[in-house]
Amino acid sequence: MARMSDQPARWSQAIVYTDMWADPDDDPRNSEGPSPEGELATLQDYLTNYRMTLRMKCAGLDAEQLARRSVPPSTMSLLGLVRHLAEVERDWQNWISDGAPLPKLYGERDADFNGVVAEQTAVDAAYSDLEREQAATDAALAGHPDLGARVGKDGIVVRELMVHRVEEYARHCGHADLLRECVDGRVGQ
Questions:
Q1: Could you report the per-residue pLDDT of 45-85, keeping only the tens digit for each?
Q2: Which of 23, 37, 99, 171 is most buried by its number of CB atoms within 10 A?
Q3: How far does CA 123 lie from the centroid of its chain?
Q4: Which among 187, 147, 185, 189 has a CA at the least distance from the CA of 164?
């Protein structure tokens, strides 16, 4: 049985901030200048930062590490989170649209997590899916800059959708913190 002292030391690029992913001066999410003006710009800024955070938490891992279910008995993996968020982005497009719903990317319920395989082609496909679906959702919402407008068959308010997007990424970035730490000891901020 391993003793606590046998556990690997936490790894970080930071020297001064030993428990952080990156020195705050080098963190790409930290921007100089004034904060965004207005509610829409603020929501978009938070969403951009959480999207970047997810990528940072997955960076530097191989296909096996990304696909690893590192917190048993959970079926979550970092690759599963990437696939799940691609699926969620696609579903948000269905909320915005008045047309027929787009089909699921990965098939049946929970296939985004359960269908993960440790192959580089699967990793590349998941990132491609995520980028494509993010761009499509962003484009669909760009046509609705009024946060109070109602869209889609169910008349969801754009503000509710935007807040839900931020919440979804924030929650899963928290999951990614734990998953990544169990894979290689790297911790986030």
A1: 999 999 999 999 999 999 999 999 998 899 999 999 999 99
A2: 23
A3: 14
A4: 147
pLDDT at 11 over 60: no
Q: Which residues of 140-173 are buried (b: 16+ CB within 10 A; e: fewer)?
A: bbeebeebeeebbeeebebeebbbebbebbeebb
Among residues 74, 103, 85, 97, the alpha carbon closest in space to that of 155 is found at 97
- Indicate the length of the chain as a whole number: 189
**In the numeric block, which tokens belong to residue 15?**
């020297």
Q: How far is CA 174 from CA 138, 181, 189, in A?
A: 23, 11, 10
Rounded-to-integer distance, Cα 105 and Cα 99, Å? 17
**CA atoms of 10 and 184, how far apart (whole Å):** 8
Exposed, middle or buried by CB within 10 Å (0-12, 13-18, 19+), for 58? buried
CA atoms within 13 Å, Cβ hemisphere of 119:
6
